[in-house]
Design a protein that fits this description.
Layout: H1 4-7, H2 16-33, H3 38-71, H4 76-85, H5 88-97, H6 103-115, H7 119-132, H8 137-151, E1 171-172, E2 175-176, H9 185-196
Antiparallel strand pairs: 1-2
Helix pairs in contact: 2-3, 3-5, 4-5, 4-6, 5-6, 6-7, 7-8, 8-9
């Protein structure tokens, strides 16, 4: 893939204003060129498409840079607090700003993904956390329990790790807790507890 900054004729060191100014100038130039006849028009359309792809990548870089300037390298305790408060967008912004991504980073990223119900992505991040820190029991337990729920739609997270001879409770807070694992709100909260060690809604 062509370097997006070279498409604008600039470098990553260019200011945001310079980048935006050059993007707008080239967009106007290629936008006009694409309506010309023959090869010149085709070349204009091609360059415009290339420009838009480059700008998409540059915009993402600018957002990460802004997040890093705002949040620094981030603090995992603060990110955990944001997740607990349900501020997932801000938690994600802080995670994006961290360049040294250790096992704790991947663990917290897995929680954000889980909260957004992106279970496959959540599992991938948990697996990376376990691979980076294989002695961490919290990470391993979270991955094992998430695997049990993902692999078995009838799994009841309330009974994971419990005495198999004890029947599961039929009621939780006066409401029936049963049915499909992914649609069961009680189960979702319980799995969040397994993965995040944050919320205890089930006994």
């Amino acid at each position: 893939m062509k370097d997006p900054y070279s498409v604008l004729g600039l470098t990553p060191d260019a200011s945001e204003e310079e980048l935006k100014e050059e993007y707008e100038a080239l967009k106007a130039e290629y936008g006009e060129q694409r309506f010309k006849s023959g090869e010149e028009g085709n070349e204009g359309a091609k360059k415009l498409s290339e420009l838009e792809a480059a700008w998409s990548q540059i915009s993402a870089d600018l957002q990460k840079k802004e997040a890093k300037e705002k949040f620094g390298d981030g603090d995992y305790g603060e990110i955990d607090d944001l997740i607990k408060k349900g501020s997932y967008d801000e938690a994600q912004a802080r995670l994006d700003a961290i360049t040294d991504r250790n096992a704790q980073w991947h663990y917290l990223q897995s929680i954000v993904y889980y909260k957004r119900e992106w279970l496959s992505d959540s599992r991938a991040q948990l697996a990376t956390a376990v691979e980076m820190d294989p002695t961490n029991e919290k990470y391993k337990t979270a991955l094992e329990k998430l695997d049990m729920v993902i692999g078995n739609p009838n799994a009841d997270a309330r009974t994971l790790g419990a005495d198999p001879n004890m029947p599961p409770p039929d009621m939780q807070n006066g409401q029936l807790c049963g049915g499909n694992a992914l649609s069961n709100c009680c189960l979702a909260y319980c799995v969040t507890d397994c993965c995040c060690q944050m919320t205890r809604c089930c006994g």
